[in-house]
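Dear support,

I submitted the protein below through the web form. The confirmation email said the job was done, but the results page showed an empty box. After a refresh the structure appeared. I'm attaching both so you can tell me whether what I see now is the final result or a partial one.
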Amino acid sequence: MLLTDTHCHLGDRQFDADRNTVVERACAAGVRCFLTVGYDIPSSYRCTELAASIPGVFAVTGVHPHDAAGVPPDYLQILRKLAGECRVAAIGEIGLDFYRDLSPRVLQRAVFTRQLELARELKLPVVIHCRDAMGEVYSILSRHSSGLTGVMHCFSGNWEEAEKFLAMGFYISIAGPVTFSKSGFLTEVAEKVPLDRLLLETDAPYLAPAPYRGKRNEPAYLVHTARRVAEIRRLSLTELAAVTSANAARLFKCSPSR
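What the results page shows now:
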C-alpha cells in the first residue's frame, strides 16, 4: 500500500522534537509521499529545506490568508524564487478565511488573487484554503482560474459546492473530519467526488482523525482517513490508496520514497 499525504505541516514546531521519527512512523504505515505546506514566507523557506533533506517530501510555498496583512513588499518575488527550488510542487496554501478574519478581507483578497496570478505564470497548481468564504473563493477562482489547476484543501462544503469546484477542474481533498461521528456533508462528498479527482490529507499537526481526535495529528494517521473513505466508496484500502496517490502524482508531479 502506498498513500500520499497531500497536505501536512512538517515544519511546524510541534514536530521539532521528533520530526524524523514522525516521518519514519508514516512510512511504516504506508505513507511514502508528503506535501509539506507553507503559510507565510519563513514557513515556505522551511518547507523547501525539508523537501531538500527528506526523501519523499515535496514543498508547497505561499501565504495563508491569516498572514496576508504581514507579507513583506517583495513576497511575490520571494515566492517566485522559491518556486525554482528542487521539489516545489505548488503554490499554497492560499485563499480566504472569513471565520477568524486575522487579516483584513481586502488584503486577503488581494494576496489571494496575486498568488493565483503567480501560480499561472509559474505553471504550478494551487492549494486553496477556504473557511466561511465558499462563495467568494468560488467567485475569485471563476475570474482568475483560467489556465490553473489545484485542490480545495480540507474541503468542508456540501456536494453542490464541491460540484462547482470540480467543474472548474479542481480536485477535492478529504481530511480527518470525515472520520468523526458527526461528519456533516463530508460523507456525501467523499462518496460522490469522481475517483480521479479525489485526494487525501492529514493537515497535520491539526485535525487528527478518530481515534486520535484532539491530539497532535501526524501523517501516519492518514490511514484512518483513507480507511473511512474506502468504506464509503466500497473499495479496499489498497485500491483507494493507489488511486489517490496516482491523482496526487498527476496533479503535483510528486513521487514517493521507496
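Response: this is the final, complete result; the empty box was a page-load delay. The CA atoms of residues 175 and 201 lie 5 Å apart.
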